[in-house]
Specification:
The chain is built from ten helices and four strands. By secondary structure, it is mainly alpha-helical. The protein has a domain at 147-211. The strands form two sheets. Strands 1-2 form a two-stranded antiparallel sheet. Helix 3 (90-104) packs antiparallel against helix 4, helix 4 runs antiparallel to helix 5 and helix 7 (150-162) packs parallel to helix 9 (181-195).
Amino acid sequence: MTTYFTMERRCAVCGKVHKYQEVGSTNCFGPSDLDLRPAPMKRWTMHAWVQTCPDCGYSASRVDKPTDVDKEWLASEAYRTCAGRNFASDLAADFYRCYMNAMCEFHEETAMLALLHAAWACDDEGDEENAKMCRREAEDLFGIVRCDSDDYLILRADLLRRSGQFDRPIEMYKDIHSENEMAKKILRFEEQRAAAHDTRRYTVADVLPDD
């Protein structure tokens, strides 16, 4: 069961107070996607992961946290149009603006995760081209974030494959160095799917059906 609560938050940019829905508790039954997207019911709480001020349009995980973003940036054409992206989903656009704001403050890991969430929102609306674009831009940030955890190695492989960059995961993961046997199986699976030019969604259960 998922529960929500409503909180008043003061926008850190314009100072206006509005009510926002936030997740109180949830659960997660089933295997996650290979790009770390959780199973239901947590999967369906994404709308509460980003807050957008109705007055100035500032988007962030919490609008009341201090920020260097200003009203001039929020009024810019680049921000208002999501750099010219025509998203089918308002939620995807909110996550994309969250990414843009995080980049303004050099919070690259936050920006990368916002792009990933934007891609998930695009997936839900069947917005394939924007989903691929968000995944490409998220993968680009790995050169800055430089996280070598097994989860992030798998995430990067999935971002590359699902954005149609098939040659790169094959080359990057042909010699897999990890002490985690599950991670090695998943990365090998990603390599095989990339070789088949397969951009479909997979879960951990598709890789490890007998585990």
